[in-house]
Every structure is written in C-alpha cells, then in structure tokens.
Inverse folding.
C-alpha cells in the first residue's frame, strides 16, 4: 500500500462519523420542520386575504416571483447562522429560538411561494436546472443515509419521541375532558341549589 495515501484515508475515516452524524441531524431537522410548517402554511393559505395575495403573486412574471422567492430567503439565511453563533457562545435557548424562527419562516415562505409560482419559476432555465440538481442531491443524501446504521437508530429515536408526544397529547386531552366535565357538573349542581333555594 502507498504510504502517501495513508494519512488521507485516516483523515477520511476520522471525518466520516462526525460528517455522517451532521448530515443525519440536518436531514432530520429539515424533515421535522417541513412536517410541521408545510401543513400550517397550507391552512394559512385558505384565509381569504392570503388567497387574494397569492392571486396577485401568481400574476407576476417569472422573474418577479423569483425575486419574491429569493430575497426573503437571502435575508433569513443569515439569521440561521446567527442562531448557530449564539449557541456557540453558550446562549443555547436564544440561539435555538432564532434558528427555529428563521427556519420556520424560510420553509414556510419557500414552500408557499414555490407552490404559487412553480410553473413560472421552472420556466427559468437556470432555476429549473438548479432545482433538479438540488432534488437529485437531496435524494442521493437520503438514499445514502438510509443505508447507514446511524440513520436507522436516529429514525427509531424520532419515532419513539413522536409516539411519546402523541401519548402525552392524548393523555392531556383525556385529562382536560375529564376536568372540563367535572367543572361543568359542579356548575350545574350549584345552579340547581340556587334554583331550589329561591
């Protein structure tokens, strides 16, 4: 074996684990945000004012929609970096809040504006090429990650967290329903006593 290649292979092995873990975290965070934000944005789009605004946006030319698509994202992306910077300084809560807010706004805007102007945006040749490449890269990363042991473990952890959250939500709903009925029954008894005493 060529000894000149050995340091390169060692560095590759050292970086493989952390880079793989980072890729998994990025993909899971992105999927989690999309799972929450996209349905919320779709519900928001049913509001009459939003429908009118979307109709106005849909009438814009391709590069007008592209400007609306890119400018807000260009403003929001630095806030994600700032959130990470805050976390690096030890302000984890503030950093997470800034990052999550920027992520929610970015995903929401991107998804909705793309849904409104998809046809016009994809009529711009270079944008269509970039979009196809980004989908191909995302699919490639997903496919590679899904083969790894780390990914399977991460998915199991996420599934367990979702299950626990759903169970806690159902438990809270049962508790609230039971307490609500108890309060209603107590109020009804008070009204009966007042009516009986009058």
């Amino acid at each position: 074996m060529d000894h000149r290649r050995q340091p390169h292979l060692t560095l590759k092995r050292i970086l493989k684990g952390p880079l793989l873990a980072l890729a998994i975290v990025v993909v899971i965070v992105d999927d989690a945000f999309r799972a929450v934000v996209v349905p919320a944005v779709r519900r928001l789009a049913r509001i009459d004012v939003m429908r009118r605004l979307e109709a106005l946006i849909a009438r814009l030319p391709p590069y007008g929609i592209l400007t609306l698509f890119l400018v807000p994202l260009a403003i929001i992306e630095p806030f994600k970096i700032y959130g990470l910077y805050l976390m690096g300084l030890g302000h984890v809560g503030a950093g997470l809040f800034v990052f999550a807010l920027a992520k929610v706004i970015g995903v929401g805007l991107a998804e909705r504006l793309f849904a409104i102007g998809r046809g016009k945006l994809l009529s711009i040749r270079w944008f269509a090429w970039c979009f196809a490449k980004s989908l191909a890269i995302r699919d490639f990363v997903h496919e590679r990650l899904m083969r790894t042991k780390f990914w399977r473990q991460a998915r199991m952890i996420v599934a367990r967290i979702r299950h626990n959250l759903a169970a806690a939500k159902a438990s809270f709903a049962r508790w609230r329903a039971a307490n609500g009925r108890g309060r209603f029954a107590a109020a009804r008894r008070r009204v009966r006593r007042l009516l009986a005493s009058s």
Remarks:
- Residues 6-125 form one domain.
- The mean pLDDT is 77.
- The chain has six helices and no strands.
